[in-house]
């Protein structure tokens, strides 16, 4: 049976939330997921920012680059420094959560600020699925990214904006999308597609990323324009 | 001889600036380039936002989706509607500028807001170089993307943060970067590199994107943390 990816809403539940040090969420859905989180793990500098908002994470994981000596002393019970330089703070936080037994992880604040970090953070989702076999969703203020592989079904709604990013597929066919898909060579080729109804399907032979918006195009135009 | 990519600063000159409808620039370098532009072409909704700031672009190009009837009437002399749906507003604006004879284009406001748009906009740089043979730079609040191919030299400074995104290289070797490069399979693998001195070099057999920051890592930590 093909894997099924449900819609995400403000009541979606996750084992853990990893709060990264990009733009702090400002939309209702990511904010609500953060508010209701069972376990919150902040990436390095995001810990300080989260605490300054009057909250307390369960853990702060990273290379310690963005923490002052004072801060490290004060919050030593929840801080876990990992200095190895082969990966980024988001991946260190992911490993930490996996070691705690969490398998269903929401990433917040992973986009915004430096665009190369944004691209790196999104790109890592493919590896988390492949290497750690976890279910992860990266939520932004506009929608959410998931990493998928092979044949999959995705919950959707009429008018939902959908973008596909091909990682290593040579076959990539869709059912239930406004525009025909193919095994895209360039990033932009799979963007700005649209769901026709409450589900679409992908038949592929490799890894890909899917971005689905919270709102239909009409609603986006009303709210953001 | 290998192609050379200079550093960008607030006095860098371009034939035209294309202002996209992502986040409006807020850093000094993109703002100064916008202020000193010879020709400003806004993508669809960015035109309205630019005018609301008390400025006047030379042209507004797009599918007209984000413009009211009134707005279209009032600014009909500078508005150029292109309804074809095979490409996005940024590409329509690019074609418009090329038809005016502009070959050296700066893109501003192309990142931020919906992340799939951001990815699409960045990804298009490769095509603009390949199809239109233009020199283009996409400037964000943190740094700038360029599309490159084959063997190239890049101006840099010690500590400049550099990220590479492989599009279709099977060979990708660098000189003058902190970390060794290779023909990356995943987006994140080429991120978070660093320039050692005032130039680095890439020897490759295909297309790639390079992001260079305005500031060194130390300066970024001081300003943004």
UniProtKB/TrEMBL annotation, chains A, B:
Keyword rRNA-binding appears in the UniProt entry: no
The enzyme's E.C. designation: 2.7.6.2
The Thiamin pyrophosphokinase-like substrate-binding domain, residue ranges: 143-211
Pfam families: Thi_PPkinase_C, TPK_catalytic
A GO term, aspect molecular function: ATP binding
UniProt domain Thiamin pyrophosphokinase catalytic: residue ranges: 33-132
UniProt GO BP: thiamine diphosphate biosynthetic process; thiamine metabolic process
Keywords: ATP-binding, Kinase, Nucleotide-binding, Transferase
InterPro entries (alphabetical): Thi_PPkinase, Thi_PPkinase-like_C, TPK, TPK_catalytic, TPK_catalytic_sf
Keyword Kinase: yes
Superkingdom of the source species: Bacteria
Protein name according to UniProt: Thiamine diphosphokinase
Top EC category: transferase
